[in-house]
Amino acid sequence: MEMCDQEEISRLANLLKAVGHPLRVQIVSIIAHEQLASITTIQSYLPDIDQFVLYSNLRFLHERTILKKLRKGRETYYSLTDTSINDGLNLFFHSKLVKTSAEADY
Question: Where in the numbering of this chain does the HTH arsR-type domain appear (predicted)?
Answer without folding.
Answer: 4-100
